[in-house]
Amino acid sequence: MTASIEVDHVAKRFRIYHERNQTLKSAVMRRRRAVFEEFWALDDVSFEIPQGGTFGLIGDNGSGKSTLLKTIAKILTPDRGSIRVNGRVAALLEVGSGFHPELSGRENVRLNGAILGMSRSEIDRKFDEIVDFAGVEQFIDQPVKNYSSGMYVRLGFAIAINVDPEILLVDEVLAVGDAAFQEKCAEKFLDFKRDGRTVVVVSHSLPSLQNMCDDVAWLSHGKLVETGPAPGILDRYQESTRADAHHGADGSSHWGSGEAQIHSVELLSGREPVSRPLNTGDELTIRVHFTAHQRVDRPVFGLAMESHDGVHLWANNTRDTNRPLDHIEGPGTIDCTVPSLALQAGSFRVDAAITDSSTTHVFDYLRDGAEFSVARRPHEEMGGLVSLRGAWGEPAPSAPYAAPVVTAARAEGETEPA
Amino acid sequence: MSLVADIRTSRELLVNLTRREVKGKYKRTVLGQLWSLANPLAQMLVYTLVFSVIIRIDPGPGVPSGLDIFALWLMCALLPWSFFTAVVTGGMSSLVGSENLIKKVYFPRSALVVANTLASSYTWSIEMVVLVIAILLAGANVLPFVPLVVVAMAVLLVFSLGVALMLSIANAYFRDTQHLVTILFMVWFYLTPILYPISEVAKQSARVGPLIGDITVLDIYQLNPMESFTEVFRNLLYDNRLPSAGSAMECVVWALVAIVVGGWVFDRHQRRLAEVL
Fold first, then answer.
1. CB B68 within 8 A of CB B197
2. Which superkingdom does the taxonomy of this entry point to (chain A) (predicted)?
3. Minimal C-alpha gap between A204 and chain B (Å)
């Protein structure tokens, strides 16, 4: 695979001003421009971003990932090293920047398209698609200052994504718009991937990165920690971000503040502990054994499931499913029952967590709390991870002059007939 | 020079940015573009009242046009001056005002200053058309000189753009620049023969005599590039004659120096704009 972006020993220095002299007086009085400290936001970073697929840049706040993205976008210039970019780049660092509030949506599409490097004919050609994608047909001749914030963002996003870049740089802007729009965006990203284009994304949201990224680069304090296929690195990154990560006596890995702890995750099927592979369609009860060392009000229990190769399959918590809990204290168990296991043959891992009511503060998170497998059986669906129990009908002759109608969703991925 | 390359590659962007400037400026006003004429008209009335009616400055009739109207004589120099200041002050605020854009999107940064210059040129062109019509109505046949006026306008545009490029970068680093420039422009305005004829300066200079060697006050006064531009525009529009080759050359040389130095300064510093803003 050829590299679409080569980052070659890139270093970027920033100055932290203690006394910023943006006025001439202070510059003259001090006879120097300012008192500042230098730090390297990027320090000798080298890696390649392969062509095609989605590449994630991860790291804590201040790790330099956004700086790197801006450097790739040519907004910042590296102090050392170089970045070679093979292809046209569009950067989605902030949608709708450059909109003029008094101008109409139509005029702003032209303006923003031109800022992003589109030619007039390109803009003309894509105009309808952009407006359609953003869903603002009715308002296109209104000044954009009358737009709702959602429309504003959607229009900005629609323009950027229609620039038709070979490389799209995205910074934390995926969380825009309503669910329907998000879905449209996700589809567009998939199209990008299929066309062999490259998407480089910076995000704090590990779940979204888990779903999207093929490869990642992990930055810490301006230095590259590692780069390569996403699943392993994302796991290691997630664990490293928890200073309070610790390992249980049995080698299980936990993190969290520890007011309440999860001892184990037990799997039951029909009141019996699971000891053999399950079957598709079985009932599965996931029982979390915990101890609350102190009274914890309004806790939230969460579960997550991954396939053996790290595909995030499912997550569920007591808050989202609207089952508020009053409090927990001392040892206890809580069950979550899955009535019919919609999984195809394979092996799966379960994580469990206890968080506060906002789900942002983690009391305890247990990785790989339980594992189970689903057996391969004849006459079950094969290929992929989920079992949808699709049923085939009888072939029926079609009318003589009508083309055969194949309306079933286009088969994607590595689906193979059994 | 990469400035030229930038302008060439971002033509579409320039067109759109210029349109944004022109259209955005008078949006939601009843009179719209007419407002751009209100300012020069008001200036004309006030200056004419003060300097022609009250103080009685008499620049004398235009030779050979025979025009003898202070207001027209004034506007022939005031409109180019106003354009020059609009380009420079507008260019300075165009970079600082587009901070958000510069930090979020890559595009040739000079496009902002150039687009602002083009937008000012658009307004200026309308004003100049009105002025030419007024001169024609006053009875001078200025039409044969219009092509040369357009050339002079292009030269002044290049000069103004060069100064704007230089000062817009300076302003990004030191915000004092814009305040300093406001004062500088006020001084510069009165040191340029816009409200009074240069003959008055020559008179005073002759009275004082040479300062050092042969150098007179007038010589120093004439170092001002806007003095040459003022003379050229007045010669063409008011007097209806060709300017002296010396003045014309001076304008061209100043324009070249400004654009080369301005382009060079801008080029050197534009890569750090996202950081300093």
1. no
2. Bacteria
3. 19
